[in-house]
Amino acid sequence: MNVVMLGSGYVGLVSGACFSEFGANVTCIDIDKKKIDALNAGKIPIYEPGLDNLVNKNHKDGRLTFTTDYDGYIQKADLVFMAVGTPTRRGDGHADLKYIYQAAKDIAPYLEGYTVIVDKSTVPVGTARNVYRVIQETNPEAEFDVASNPEFLREGAAIKDFMYPDRVVLGVVSDKAKKLLQELYRPLNLIEVPMVITSLETAELIKYAANAFLATKISFINEIANLCEAVNADVHAVSKGIGLDGRIGRKFLHPGPGFGGSCFPKDTKALVRIAQEHDVSCRIVETVVEVNEAQKARMIGKIRNALGGSESGKKLAVLGLTFKPETDDMRDAPSLAILPKLIENGARVIAHDPQGMEEAKPLLPSNVEYCDAIYDVFDDVDAVILFTEWHVYRGLDISLIKEKMSGNTFIDLRNVYEPDTMKANGFNYVCVGRQ
């Protein structure tokens, strides 16, 4: 089976590599020649555990190709996946679909024989039918269907999520399209992965609803953590107590400085806009967005209070910059909302991140200092702020950190360490939702 993946970013590259591992002949097409040249040279433009080996293996075996050309590839494709960006549109919060529609126009003249065009990007309800209209208007002779196949990949665990998914959602309008997609995903039959076959609109909404629900759990536990601080309760125990209820589940009940990344911020905003356009109330998701922004602001206040009421003149060590561990993704990372405010008010920031420092440099103020060696970041600092719970930060030498610091404040925004242990080691330890 011949598959074309339009876009070689996070979703396109992971999906293309995994489909090629399934045995399909996959061509990833991208307009960024620099990125394509790097991929052909074996250089992966993003950090995702295991992706480099998977890409290079299938590229070497001839099942995974990278190019900037449409001609010769679209014509032979059985399925063309759209995995281009759908960022938040400036000004109104809606998903910007210009890349989707441009890709549809670009491929339309090359379609030959029956082809299924598949929306892999996260797109508002109705987009698939608009893609169909754009292609049909551009090439009235084309024989094709449009389908929706949303992705549910967690950054840092994307390959596992693709190879062992909870479900595969297929929004289709014809049996022919359904059969082609089912054949592509046939290797998953061996592990009995559920296939949700539904309409285009339903598939599109499933993606938004899933992300909004997970974001809701995060904002919920963050508000509960704030209440725990006020009433002298322990949010970890609360989280465990409610998470053991099978109707609730334990995942996404970890308090912190708010959610970020490529999905939750833009998808919650887009879902609110979709509801508004259809005159439907979506107040829970609206509040989730508001709570998340408020949580970031609250963290600035927490840090300031821990520093004695002012960050001016303080030297701060920052552990972790990315929005979550096991990725170099800085999109909507809480650090981007919090650190500039501290620096603006006179703080000096020295940062470390295992993978995200190069990505962070153009996004953070130019006077942020970066350390390649973890323990160098602690030299003569007044306080430590742990933003991202990378595994390498979970077993640090606490005594050495204390020895290297000039102050003793440790602000743990991910609750990696135990309060009693840190206080016993002489730290002014501040965390989220615990005393």
Brief write-up:
By secondary structure, the protein is α/β, with parallel strands linked by helices.
Describe the fold and architecture:
The chain is an alpha/beta fold and 435 residues long. The protein has two domains: 197 residues, Rossmann fold (3-Layer(aba) Sandwich); 202 residues, NAD(P)-binding Rossmann-like Domain (Rossmann fold). The protein has 15 helices and 14 strands. The strands form three sheets. The protein has a six-stranded parallel sheet with strand order 3-2-1-4-5-6, sandwiched between helices. It has a six-stranded parallel sheet with strand order 11-10-9-12-13-14. Strand 7, helix 7 and strand 8 form a beta-alpha-beta unit. Helix 4 packs parallel to helix 5 and helix 8 crosses helix 10. It is globular and about 70 Å long. The termini are far apart. The mean pLDDT is 96.
* CATH domain class of the largest domain: Alpha Beta
Counting DSSP H or I runs of 4 or more residues, the number of helices is 15
* Low-pLDDT residue spans: none
H and E string: EHEHHEEHEHEHEHEHHHHEHEHEEHEHE
The end-to-end span amounts to: 57 Å
- What number of domains? 2
Q: What percentage of the residues does DSSP assign to strands (E)?
A: 5-15%
Tally the beta strands.
Answer: 14
Query: What about the largest sheet?
Result: 6 strands, parallel
What is the helix content? Answer: 40-55%
**Mean of residue pLDDT values:** 96
**Helix/sheet category:** alpha/beta
Q: Radius of gyration, rounded?
A: 23 Å
Q: What is the second-level CATH architecture of the largest domain?
A: 3-Layer(aba) Sandwich
Strand order of the largest sheet: 3-2-1-4-5-6
What is the H level of CATH, i.e. the homologous superfamily of the largest domain? NAD(P)-binding Rossmann-like Domain
Shape, per Cα inertia axes? globular
